[in-house]
Amino acid sequence: MSISSALNSASSGLIANSRLLETISSNVSNALTPGYSRRTVELSSSVLGDAGSGVRVVGTVAASNPYLTAERRAADATLSESAVIADAYARIMSSIGTPGDAGALATLSTKLETALLSVAANPQSKSELTAAVAAAKALVKGINGAVASNDQLRTEADAEIARQVRTLNESLNGIRDLNEKIQSAKMRGVPTLGLEDERSLLIDSVSSIVPVTTVKRDDGQIALYSKNGGVLLNGRVYEFDFDPALGGVTSAMTVGGALSELMQDRGAPVGQVAIPAGTGSGLFDGGSLGALFQVRDQIATEMNGELDTFAADLIERFRDLMPAGALDASGDGLFVDPTGGATLGLAGRLEINVAVDPDQGGAVWRLRDGLGAVTEGNQGFGDYLQAMNDAIVASRVQAGFV
């Protein structure tokens, strides 16, 4: 081996060792850095003529497994979806309560039934009448509170949708910018692993919101599609738009009316189009975004519908199953809808008849003597109280929670 060959071999070995040490140092220092992939240096022998001339650094590559990465992102999306839905159900169950627990709707209903049974047996007791009215008011308060809790859940879901749509757009635009930087760097022969790690981290942030599939394009660029085939990024960003409800969401608000749909910019001349979301089969369902739409438009809404049915049954039981003399001048019973509106939102409007509520100028003795009574009658009269007791235990089509 000539002196020049020996020097070339030694020099190439030093260069290779320097690159190896640099890579090892980078791996150690970035071991806990989010999105960082372990690097390895690829080496090959260098041949000059027929003789070996040291070692050549082929390049630095990141250790990655596209299949495992895709599976991890799919699992992240499923976890995010499940967490949103599980939290919603937990909050709904907390709002209606577990039977036997103080404040649970089932417990409050039982307390009203017990109070009516007790006062029917002792109609002259002012304390029993007061307890029965208090039990009715507590049940109304519990129903109103459950609706308010569900409306708050819908309001928070609506606001979180708006936040996640902003995050989605920001991340997608960031990925597009990195695509362009990676393409430019590759054309100049500059290493791109750092940029690719940064892009991978942004893809992770998208994948928990919408499950994604990545497709490689020329010069290191990628396109992003949702698991269900919706386009997110392909050369340009297909941005989303969503308008949160001002002042919060109420039980009477519906999609397409006061509540915004998920919109996507498909480009001219199509422009923005509405994208069904929260159905489970929507183009961008499968992550936290679709789950939030499901909470806002299905889960909490269906529970409010059950509460509306329950409230309607209470009104009907204490009106339609009662003697005419037990009702007020308008023909209303113990429970009323002050607006007389549609069933939608009824549970949130439910009130106790003011005729028996001392806090609203009423008198508890009207529970015994009739809601329309002007003066207090015979204290031993218990027919209307017994009718109320019969009404609450009457066999009817199951009301709510079916």
Describe the structure.
The chain has helices spanning 3-29, 66-96, 105-121, 126-188, 193-207, 288-320, 346-349, 366-369, 383-393, and strands spanning 39-48, 51-62, 212-216, 222-226, 231-234, 236-237, 240-241, 262-265, 272-275, 335-336, 351-352. The longest helix is centred in the middle third of the chain and has 63 residues, at 126-188. Helix content is 51%, strand content 13%. It is elongated and about 100 Å long. The strands form 4 sheets. The chain has a 4-stranded antiparallel β-sheet. Strands 7-8-9 form a 3-stranded antiparallel β-sheet. A two-stranded antiparallel sheet has the order 1-2. Strand 1 (39-48) and strand 2 form a beta hairpin. The chain contains 9 helices and 11 strands. With 402 residues, the protein is an alpha+beta fold. Helix 2 (66-96) packs antiparallel against helix 4 (126-188), helix 3 packs antiparallel against helix 9 (383-393) and helix 4 (126-188) packs antiparallel against helix 6 (288-320).
Helices, strands, pairings?
Elements: H1 3-29, E1 39-48, E2 51-62, H2 66-96, H3 105-121, H4 126-188, H5 193-207, E3 212-216, E4 222-226, E5 231-234, E6 236-237, E7 240-241, E8 262-265, E9 272-275, H6 288-320, E10 335-336, H7 346-349, E11 351-352, H8 366-369, H9 383-393
Antiparallel strand pairs: 1-2, 3-4, 4-5, 5-6, 7-8, 8-9, 10-11
Helix pairs in contact: 2-4, 2-6, 3-4, 3-9, 4-5, 4-6
